[in-house]
């Protein structure tokens, strides 16, 4: 048996804002929560072959913390395809403030629908990734000005299938840390979730999500936490638009 272990990055210094591709660091509480749940991976006894993360520090620092906590050193592959959804003109702004300005219905449509994009940023906006040196080697036409979950799926899942899933089929143990919408896209693919049902799926911070594989086939899925722990973190995510 081999494993895919998914860990959504810990809480950041910008919890409550539309962070997107903004490169915000983990908050101290996010670091401690990551360590807490990494211990459960250690207790599970999984030995990893490779680790993957986005290029954003909150994801790859989560990987580094997990590996340090479980006492393992493996190659970490960082790729922009695993970045969070780009929130366009909403990026950097307060979720509660946007609710006050546009109303909860509109903000939830931008935030939770499958194929509705937020307002896009212009090419000269500093929030557009063409203006970020981190993406200087990425073809400009590939860099988004704002994405729906569907757009995110179309960016993340082809990379996952080509770069990660093939290794899972070959029996490798993979650790993956990424972001809420990127991971929702991957889970949508892995669990064959339809476009309507995916809008209500939440993935909790830090709690390891385990996929088990046997002979190149996915056979099981579970969190390394109780249902109550998972639900408590998901409830906190749902409340982020509230002041």
**What is the approximate shape?**
globular
Q: Which fold name corresponds to the CATH topology?
A: Rossmann fold
Q: How many structural domains are formed by the residues?
A: 1
Proportion of beta-strand residues = 5-15%
| Spatial extent as radius of gyration | 17 Å
Summed over residues and divided by their number, the pLDDT gives a mean of 95
Q: How many strands?
A: 6
CATH architecture: 3-Layer(aba) Sandwich
Query: How does the helix and strand content classify structurally?
Result: alpha/beta
| Alpha-carbon distance between the two ends | 45 Å
Draw up the topology in text.
Layout: E1 2-8, H1 28-44, E2 50-53, H2 57-70, E3 76-78, H3 95-102, H4 104-112, H5 149-169, E4 174-178, H6 180-191, E5 209-214, E6 217-223, H7 227-238
């Amino acid at each position: 048996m081999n494993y895919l272990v998914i860990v959504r990055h810990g809480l950041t210094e910008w919890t409550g804002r539309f962070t997107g591709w903004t490169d915000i660091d983990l908050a101290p509480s996010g670091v401690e929560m990551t360590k807490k749940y990494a211990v459960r991976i250690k207790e599970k006894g999984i030995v990893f072959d490779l680790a993957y993360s986005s290029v954003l520090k909150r994801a790859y620092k989560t990987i580094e913390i997990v590996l340090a906590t479980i006492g393992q050193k493996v190659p970490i592959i960082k790729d922009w395809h695993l970045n969070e959804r780009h929130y366009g003109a909403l990026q950097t702004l307060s979720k509660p403030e946007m609710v006050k300005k546009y109303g909860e219905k509109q903000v939830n449509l931008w935030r939770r629908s499958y194929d509705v994009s937020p307002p896009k940023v212009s090419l000269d906006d500093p929030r557009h990734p063409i203006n970020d040196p981190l993406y200087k080697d990425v073809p400009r036409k590939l860099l988004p000005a704002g994405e729906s979950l569907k757009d995110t799926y179309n960016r993340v899942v082809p990379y996952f299938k080509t770069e990660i899933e093939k290794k899972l089929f070959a029996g490798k143990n993979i650790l993956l840390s990424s972001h809420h919408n990127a991971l929702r896209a991957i889970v949508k693919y892995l669990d064959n979730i339809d476009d309507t049902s995916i809008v209500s799926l939440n993935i909790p911070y830090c709690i390891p999500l385990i996929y088990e594989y046997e002979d190149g086939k996915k056979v099981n899925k579970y969190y390394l936490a109780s249902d109550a722990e998972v639900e408590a973190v998901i409830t906190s995510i749902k409340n982020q638009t509230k002041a």
